[in-house]
Write a structure and sequence with these properties.
The protein has helices spanning 34-45, 56-64, 67-87, 90-95, 102-129, 133-140, 144-161, 170-203, 208-238, 241-248, 250-271, 282-299, 317-321. By secondary structure, it is mostly helical. The chain has one domain (46-324, 334-350): Ribonucleotide Reductase, subunit A (Orthogonal Bundle). The longest helix has 34 residues, at 170-203. The radius of gyration is 20 Å and the shape is globular. Bound molecules: fe (ii) ion (2 copies). One fe (ii) ion binds at residues 87, 115, 187, 221, 224.
């Protein structure tokens, strides 16, 4: 019988990430997966709360936006709310019961906790901008495009959770692998597309408080992306079944990426259906979807099944993602590139490359 505390027979350094004996003592003196421990520390050092960012000017800006721009802003925010609603609970519910190492356990808990800060910040933003914030929240589940996205991002979590076969069987591992791919796509593609829209407004000097909050969220998501990639790459190192699973699921994984990319492209049409904004329209956002999708295919070790361009179609997104590179005049605006825990925060996709991911 499973227990929340049962002393195992295996030393913590000998355990696999998942499906091994449960974690007994939460100890971090020595860990098997050092990059996971470092990612956890990095996440923690980024602790922030939305109240630190002044969003009062956004209220005035919002009133001056065109109807089309207001639609883009609100719809993008609603979809971000959905993404973090799912990601703020699912790793805890679906992954923790399967996890066996202390460093991964705390990484998952911290990861999910930070998604709840993101959800909290959306409420902070919405309360500021809209006279009736409840209306905005109530509308989220009435938008078919958002519900479709919700179905897709929760599907592999649900399949994993509802598995009733043998704990840690080959099929169980296969479901976990696909779930982790789905998480990687969510963290690495879907969130980044929504960030581009948030920063698009700040590029034209509008809704800058929102953009700053999204910058802090992106800084966190970057560590989540690294965490999901670390787990994916650690699977076959620990257990040869995953070498086989990776081969067997190849086409299914490509289909998962492509269906998310297609859904993001369709979402771009929905966002801009009432008009574009300076610097951003559905065409260029779709190019960005494909560009970021290709990057994620490559990092996960898959070949991108479509021709890709080398240059980022939205180059200005990089200064927002690049944390410390942002030049901010303190008298004009809050500095978002500060440190809470005294660790540099410019996490890039390859930051943890040297840590044998
Ligand atoms: Fe998030
Ligand atoms: Fe995340």
């Amino acid at each position: 019988m499973k227990s929340v505390f049962k002393v195992g027979t295996k030393k913590h350094l000998k355990k696999k990430m998942f499906f091994d004996e449960s974690v007994d003592i939460a100890r971090y003196d020595t860990v098997k997966n050092v990059p996971q421990q470092k990612l956890y520390e990095k996440m923690l050092s980024f602790y922030w709360t939305p109240d630190e960012i002044d969003v009062t000017k956004d209220k005035i800006d919002f009133g001056k936006l065109t109807k089309g721009e207001q639609h883009i802003f609100t719809a993008n925010l609603k979809r971000q709310i959905l993404l973090d609603s799912v990601q703020g609970r699912s790793p805890n519910i679906a992954l923790l019961p399967l996890c066996s190492t202390p460093e991964l356990e705390v990484l998952i808990e911290t990861w999910s906790f930070f998604e709840t800060i993101h959800s909290r910040s959306y409420t902070h933003l919405i309360r500021n901008v809209y006279p009736d914030p409840s209306k905005v929240f109530d509308e989220i589940v009435t938008i078919p495009e958002i519900l479709d996205c919700g179905k897709d991002i929760s599907r592999h979590y649900d399949l994993l959770m509802h598995y009733r076969g043998k704990f840690g069987s080959y099929e169980h591992k296969r479901l976990l692998y696909l779930c982790m791919i789905s998480i990687y796509i969510l963290e690495g593609i879907r969130f980044y597309v929504s960030f581009a829209c948030s920063w698009g407004f700040a590029e034209i000097k509008k809704m800058e408080g929102n953009a700053k909050i999204i910058k802090l969220i992106a800084r966190d998501e970057n560590t989540h992306l690294a965490a999901s990639l670390n787990i994916l790459k650690s699977f076959p190192k620990e257990d040869k079944d995953y070498v086989k699973i990776r081969k067997e699921t190849h086409n299914e994984v490509i289909d998962m990426f492509m269906s998310a990319i297609k859904q993001e492209e369709e979402w771009a049409d929905y966002l801009f259906k009432h008009g574009s904004m300076i610097g951003l329209n559905s065409g260029v956002l779709k190019e960005y979807v494909r560009w970021i999708g290709a990057k994620r295919f490559k990092s996960a070790g898959y070949t991108t099944p479509y021709p890709t361009q080398q240059a980022n179609p939205l180059p200005w997104t990089e200064k927002w993602i690049g944390g410390g590179n942002v030049q901010v005049a303190p008298q004009e605006t809050e500095i978002t590139s500060y440190l809470v825990g005294g660790v540099t925060q410019d996490v890039k996709e390859n930051t943890f490359k040297g840590l044998s991911l």
